[in-house]
Structures are given as C-alpha cells and as structure tokens.
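#lab-general

N.A. 3:47 PM
ok so I finally got the sequence cleaned up, no stray characters, all 200 residues accounted for. can someone with queue access submit it? mine expired

B.Y. 3:52 PM
send it over

N.A. 3:53 PM
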Amino acid sequence: MHDRPELAPTGFKEWASVCAAVGAGRQQIILRKGGIAEGRTGFSFAKHDAFFLFPTLFHQQEESVREVFELEDVPAAEESIPLRFFVQVLWTGEMRDWQAVQKLEPLHVWKESVIRERFDYDDEPGQGSVQLAVLRAWELLETWWIPHHRSYGGCRSWVNLPGIPEQIAAADLRLIDACGSADQLTTVLVSSGVNVSVSM
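B.Y. 4:20 PM
back already:
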C-alpha cells in the first residue's frame, strides 16, 4: 500500500488524450523533449518529482496516438481547466538510444512517428534523445477546476498552479491500477536499458 502523496501546485502540460490514458492505467511513462520556453538548461523531470497532469487540446492528437482515450468535460481554449490526475515520478533519465526508446512502446499510446520526431528534434540524425519519466498515478475523487491564465500558454512543459484549495489538498485520492503488473513494467524498462525495479 502506497502512502497518499502530498499535492504540489505544479502542472505538467500534456495532451488530454494522454492524460486520459494515464488515468485509465494504460500509460505508465511520459517521454518529453521540452519546449522552447524551457530555458538554456533545457527540460528535465528532475525539476519536479510530483505534479498534476495539465490537459491540453491539440487538434492532431487523435491522429498521433495508437489508442484514443478521452477526458470528460475537456474545455476549449481559455476556459477553466480540469485537473484530475496527480503523478509521482518513480524514475527519470535521458534516453539516447533510439532502439531502447522503441522498446518502451507497451508503456505508452503515442505512435512511433511522434516519438521519433521528439527524439530527433533539434539534434543531428542519430544523435537525439528524450527524457523519460516512469509514473505512479493517482486520481482526485473531486476534480479541481482552475481558471485559465495567460501564463499557461506557449511552448512550455511546466506551469505554476494557484494555491491548492483546502478541500482538494485534504481529499481522498485513488491509486490508479496500471494495466500491467509491476513485474511487467520492470521487464520492459530493463529491456530498454533502464535497470530499475519499480513498485506500482
């Protein structure tokens, strides 16, 4: 049994369909290159070891995933945003071997072409990389709706959220059961060169 995490007022921008896949237990990792607003130091999951998934709309996301998951009541741009899932980073690192990245396919819903584009973006062919985070996910039993703010826009991964309301901070969370076992997750990670044993 895992202890309830302490909620942190940090959001990680991700496609709504991927947030839903995490919430369904289908996706257990995030792969990210980083946005142009990440600064000179670049993107790193090490900056935050726990955060809310901040759903975003992307008009091509259904064409970019192998399985389609949907969140209820996802708002249009500049409307209030529903925060339903809070995740903890169990392991993070940089993946520089494309064949190793390909072996992670059972743990996510993106199409290979999407991951390849991220892997190669702004790098010489064959010299790319992506940042990997292995997740433990929790669902809020009461959705936290936050008003849209202009600071949430742009090509950035992290957003600073408003103060967490007391009723949300104290509310019960449901641990999301992954579709595969911890042993299966560890087997896939080890096959990709990530030598870690993960307890879900």
